[in-house]
Amino acid sequence: MKKLFVVGCSLTLLLLASPVFAGFAVSVTGNGALVAPPVNASPGAFESDAYQVWNESSGTIGAPVTLDYNGAPGSYNGLSAFTPTTLATGTPYGSTMVQLDPVNDDIIHHSGLATITFSTKILGIALRGTSLDATDPYGAPGTTYPTGYNPALPDTRGIDYRTNDRFTVSADGKTLEVRLTANFNGFDELRVFTAAVPEPASLVVWSIVGAVVAGGSFWRRQRPAV
Ligand SMILES: [Ca+2]
Ligand SMILES: [Ca+2]
Ligand SMILES: [Ca+2]
């Protein structure tokens, strides 16, 4: 038990020392890949017929920002009615970009399915140009983004107002499946915000609880039997 107590304390110190509490994409399967952030994410600058996914940044939200969709589990397409959400100042977050920019812009690409799994729950997603532009400050530090890129409707910088841009969020809120289409010169981006868990404050509380429980068991064991 004493050994357990020591291990518990060491683990607590290790967790407290860890600076990273943000969520991030941990895996991409299907027709996509987790890649390093590109230098330039503008249309035509970083093309692939597969979805390209990169973790962008983490920290806290600097000023209230509204995302088109609150991450509620379910299946959607470009014409769905989304419930927006506003991330308040100080909200801890991690951000991840999902981009489709096919190589051959003279045809229509039905780019199949990619499944992206995150370490924590999705807080919300920027789906259209306005919210993508507004959240570019939460992009990867060294990447140039197409802020203000505004193709003619029904196309947008994000998913388009078409039923052939489809995605699903799993019941636990941690997995995003995308099934998008890029029509001639098509370009689709989704910026996913994920929660920071565990929070440092609650981590401290639970670590103390754990240490007290372990310590109590240890001291009870030292008392002579009556
Ligand atoms: Ca292209
Ligand atoms: Ca599209
Ligand atoms: Ca688009």
Question: How would you describe this structure to a colleague?
Answer:
By secondary structure, the chain is of the alpha+beta class. It has 2 domains: 1-21 and 200-226; 22-197, no CATH class. 20% of the residues lie in helices and 34% in strands. The chain is built from 3 helices and 12 strands. The chain has a 5-stranded antiparallel beta sheet, with no helix packed on it. A 5-stranded mixed beta sheet has the order 2-3-7-12-9. A two-stranded antiparallel ribbon has the order 4-6. α1 runs antiparallel to α3. The radius of gyration is 22 Å and the shape is globular. The relative contact order is 0.23. The model is unreliable at 4-20 and 216-220 (pLDDT under 50). The protein binds calcium ion (CA) (3 copies). The site of one calcium ion has 7 residues, from loops.
Give, in order, the helices and strands: HEEEEEEEEEHEEEH
**Count of distinct strands:** 12
Quaternary status of these chains? Answer: single chain
Strand order of the largest sheet: 1-8-11-10-5
- Main structural class: alpha+beta
Indicate how many domains the architecture comprises.
Answer: 2
- Uncertain ranges: 4-20, 216-220
The total of helices stands at 3
> In whole angstroms, how far apart are the ends?
20 Å
Question: Over all CA atoms, what is the radius of gyration?
Answer: 22 Å
Mean pLDDT: 85
The shape, in one word, is: globular
Beta-strand percent range: 25-35%
Major sheet attributes: 5 strands, antiparallel
Helix fraction bin: 10-25%
